Amino acid sequence: MENKHYHLIGICGTAMASLAGMLIKQGHKVTGSDENVYPPMSLELERLGIPVCEGYRPENLSEQPDVIVVGNAITRGNPELELVLNSKMYYTSMAAVVEENFIRGRHSIVVAGTHGKTTTTSLMAWALECAGASPSFLIGGVAENFNSSFRLNDDSRHFVIEGDEYDTAYFDKGPKFMHYLPDTVILNNVEFDHADIYRDIEAVKFAFSRLINLIPGRGQLIAGWDSELVRELAPRAFCQVDSFGIEQDARWRAEDVMFSADATTFSVRVEGREFGSYRTQLAGLFNVRNCLGVIAACELLGFDRRAVADSLAEFKSVKRRLEVRGEVRGVTVIDDFAHHPTAVRETLLAARARYPGRRLVAIFEPRSYTAQIKLFQHQFEDALAVADEIIIARLFHPERYTAQTAISPAQMLERLHAQGREAQFIPTPDDIVASLAPRLGSSDVVVIMSNGSFGGIHDKMLDALRKTELSARTDS
Predict the structure, then answer these.
(1) How far apart are CA 83 and CA 89, in angstroms?
(2) Which of 32, 185, 191, 429 could form a disulfide with 457 if both were Cys (CB 3.0 to 4.6 A apart)?
(3) Where are the alpha helices (DSSP H) in 280-387?
(4) Are 39 and 182 within one domain?
């Protein structure tokens, strides 16, 4: 393949940064630009030696790159995009580059669904690694076992990829996963999300039905049977369908689930017959489902059962998925990417399971479109009520909404108080830290949920706790 110069507009998005790394490994020159440069992807790009221009400017394209990759967050009016269009430069999308440069000709394992994609993709890649397949992969986060969000192995026939249902680019409004040539699909669940691009649940169902329709007859659909909409869509497949779940009549079932402070154990039965016992460091029922989908997929693909079981026990996690950022003064500070009410609820339930008997404090930044619109307000209230204390920050872009379209923190507090929960609206990260850090008690667990950097609140909270710890020692 001829080496080219790729320039990625919006390079710090999780998928775009991973693509940048894969293009470097393929021998290409890569540059990029973004206006939101923050970890973990900024650190990954720095490690790879990829220059990133902070801010979008026409001069970032002065070297006349061969290919412009336009991120899906980039819209008309972006200075670099306008130059590309005016100059008739060649441009394409991240998903299209992945399809043609990396997936075509390989067995594509696509992990899709509203929740759990990143963790399940990481689990699947690690399972194949432990089973000797050494797969290529592309993940929307940094998998801790690999310490990377991607890998390119030209000698492997397997490519594991996170199948995002979000749109591909401003010029391609279809889901990214439509480009991924799926042979095996793990479909965890389907819910209404991304109301900025899907008008209603029927539109979401249509998108996932299109993915199912892409699977060839020799392929497999591994279907999360605990999701009502997955059960509805699965019969549309023209391939083998294997169901997995906990609560429903699934072919692959997880039973005898037990949580402890450092592990989750469960047994698996297939059509009522004993299959095996498993252990994972991950917490929460949703992660049992994630593991179960991987177990089923690996068995159907013919990988060694013992190696798969060992891989689940050895799997660490993904950065920003119930990631413990530190423990100071007995207070555990956790970072999580949750921004949909189901994800918020499952994250907090998992924290309850992992830290039984400890006071749980939830800090939530309404940052994504889903998190900021009134449509999901009551669901967020119920999800956040799992915690003992709740702090809601200000909306990330309040100017984009009206009183009729935006969630109302005041109304949320009123309903949470009615449920007996201690809840506050504290607008900024600095104010949250100033209010909360001095009154946190030993053994408290603080779960911070946002799909962005949230103003560096995690490090600020830990620094504040260290200062109060030092102050207490000095006073004594």
Answers:
(1) 8
(2) 429
(3) 285-300, 305-314, 341-354, 369-372, 377-384
(4) no
Range of the domain at 338: 323-475
Same structural domain, 38 and 146: no
Q: Which of 367, 368, 419, 370 is nearest to 390 (CA)?
A: 419
What rounded mean pLDDT belongs to the chain? Answer: 93
Burial of residue 267 (number of CB atoms within 10 Å: 0-12, 13-18, 19+): middle
What was the pLDDT predicted at 471?
A: 61
| 225-231: long-range contacts, CB 8 A cutoff, minimum separation 24 | 225/249, 225/250, 225/251, 226/189, 226/250, 226/289, 227/113, 227/188, 227/189, 227/190, 227/191, 229/189, 229/190, 229/191, 229/201, 229/204, 229/205, 230/113, 230/187, 230/188, 230/189, 230/190
* Domain-embedded: residue 145: yes
Q: Cα–Cα distance between 389 and 117 in angstroms, integer?
A: 28
Query: Do 332 and 384 lie in a common domain?
Result: yes
| pLDDT of 177 higher than 90 | yes
224 and 251 in a single domain? The answer is yes
CATH code at 41?
3.40.50.720
What's the burial of 441, exposed, middle or buried (CB within 10 Å: 0-12/13-18/19+)?
A: exposed
pLDDT tens profile 303-342: 999 999 999 999 998 888 889 999 999 999 999 988 889 9
Higher pLDDT, 141 or 199: 199
Q: How many domains does the chain have?
A: 3
Number of Cβ within a 10 Å radius of residue 328? 18
Q: Are residues 371 and 416 in the same domain?
A: yes
Regarding whether 408 and 333 lie in a shared domain, the answer is yes
pLDDT confidence of residue 469: 66
Give yes or no: residues 310 and 242 share one domain: yes
pLDDT of residue 476 exceeding 70, the answer is no
Instruction: Output the pLDDT for position 5.
Output: 98
* CATH number, domain with residue 185: 3.40.1190.10
What is the arithmetic mean of pLDDT over 116-136? 96
| Domain endpoint, select from 281, 314, 347 | 314
In a domain, 100, yes or no: no
Q: Is 296 within a domain?
A: yes
- pLDDT-based confidence at residue 171 (cuts at 50, 70, 90): very high
Per the CB < 8 A criterion, the answer to whether 369 and 195 are in contact is: yes
- Asked whether the predicted pLDDT for residue 182 surpasses 60, the reply is yes
Domain identity same for 289 and 327: no
CA-to-CA separations, 442 to 40, 431, 465, in angstroms, rounded = 29, 21, 11
The arithmetic mean of pLDDT across residues 258-271, rounded, is 93
Last residue in a domain, options 62, 95, 128: 95
Handedness of CA 451, 342, 291, 179 (dihedral sign): negative
Band (274; pLDDT cuts 50, 70, 90): very high
Q: Are strands 67-70 and 5-9 parallel, antiparallel or unpaired?
A: parallel
